[in-house]
Prior knowledge:
Layout (H helix, E strand, L loop, with lengths): L1 H9 L1 H35 L10 E4 L2 E4 H38 L11 H23 L1
Antiparallel strand pairs: 1-2
Amino acid sequence: xxxxxxxxxxxxxxxxxxxxxxxxxxxxxxxxxxxxxxxxxxxxxxxxxxxxxxxxxxxxxxxxxxxxxxxxxxxxxxxxxxxxxxxxxxxxxxxxxxxxxxxxxxxxxxxxxxxxxxxxxxxxxxxxxxxxxxxxxxx
Length: 139
């Protein structure tokens, strides 16, 4: 059981996930500060209130619906999603595309990891060779 846990922890994707959670938490603090320090006061000024929580409040009987809080959460989400896309996803996709172009052009970078398609093709070829050898031995 301990060996299985050790193998689980040592997998690359578990470590990557842990790093992503830590970076995400730190990054969320930065975006939250940006939203509460800049965007919320700007939007609150538009609605002439002290903060975004006080903006767009609708009273329904004794209940108060605070649409400003929802707007702040939406702004926070959009900012986080935009930064993740433009800082992480877009550059990594461009790097993969450049690597694919180099491979198609015949420039092989030994330090670059093989793509999943290349690994699957290599496995297929090895299995085909192994199957051909077994067939010869059984005849």
